[in-house]
Every structure is written in structure tokens, then in C-alpha cells.
Amino acid sequence: MKYHQNKWKKSDRIMAPPKIDTQQHESKKPIVPLKNQMEAHEKQCIEQALKQSNGKVSQAAKLLGVSRQTLQYRIKRLEIKSKEVTTSSF
């Protein structure tokens, strides 16, 4: 690896040093823990798949690329009511 004109070269690729976003560090917005963000996104994806499959867990699991048992576990863990999902609107 060679350093050439402020960029790292590795074979044919040029990788610039990472830039630091100074605005992000200066903002006063509260930071939501990653776990909470991931759970909210996971819940939204599961609800969307259940709605698309008319509440059928096995079809929703196929859409999401997980097993039916895994989806049932996540539905229970995230307290998703599959019947409410099919009647609600997005």
C-alpha cells in the first residue's frame, strides 16, 4: 500500500482517508440507542410483511427471508399483534 497525493492506493483502488462529520458532533439532538432504532425498524419491516401477506406468518417469513419460527419469536418479542397489522393502514 502506498500513500500518494492524500490517497491510499491498493492495487487499482484509491481509498481516501475517512472524513469526520463535525456537524454531527456539534448537534444537540438526543441520541437514540442503536438497539431501540434497530427494534423499531425490525418491527416496521415485520408489520409491513404481515400486512402484505394478509397476516399469514409463514408467507411473511418467506418475504423477510427468515424461518416461520424465527418470525414468530420476533413477533412475540416485539409484541406485534398480527390481526391489528392487517387492518391498520401504512
Structure summary:
The protein is mainly α and 90 residues long. The protein has helices spanning 22-26, 34-52, 57-64, 68-77, 82-87; strands at residues 2-4, 7-10, 13-15.
Strand content range: 5-15%
Describe the biggest sheet? 3 strands, antiparallel
Q: What does the average pLDDT come to?
A: 80
The unreliable regions are none
Number of strands: 3
What is the general shape? elongated
Q: Strands of the biggest beta sheet: in what spatial order?
A: 1-2-3
Distance between the amino and carboxyl termini: 50 Å
Helix coverage percent: 40-55%
Structure classification: mainly alpha
Written as H for each helix and E for each strand, in order along the chain, the element string is EEEHHHHH
Tally of contiguous helical segments: 5
Q: What Rg do the Cα atoms give?
A: 21 Å
